[in-house]
Amino acid sequence: MTERRVERRPAPTRDPSGVVNDLDQAFAEVAALRALDGSEERRHDESRVYDASIRWGALVAGRLHRLALLHHRGALSDEQGSRYIELEVELAGLSPVLDRLGLPDPRAGQRRT
Predict the structure, then answer these.
(1) How far apart are CA 76 and CA 86, in angstroms?
(2) How many domains does the chain have?
(3) Which of 16, 42, 60, 88 has its CA 20 to 30 A from that of 22?
């Protein structure tokens, strides 16, 4: 008798594309940068600023770029699209914080409409 292998598939998720996770992560990182910027200890804690810069760089290069592509392709649900627009507003207000922390603005060089 031959042994049958049963392929196990992961349980279905409500967001197989990972967009919800990307948006959640982006909003969390924006909040973390605002908290770091508001911290009195920020100037004396280079390791926290360094760690934040690494996380921010990964977010900008990966998740934000991907979200922008999906948004411009019309691949986001209505709710995801609304959250993405909300994130863009948050990012616009984050520019002074990014300047103070010496971090890149992901909107730099983009055409503003």
Answers:
(1) 14
(2) 1
(3) 42
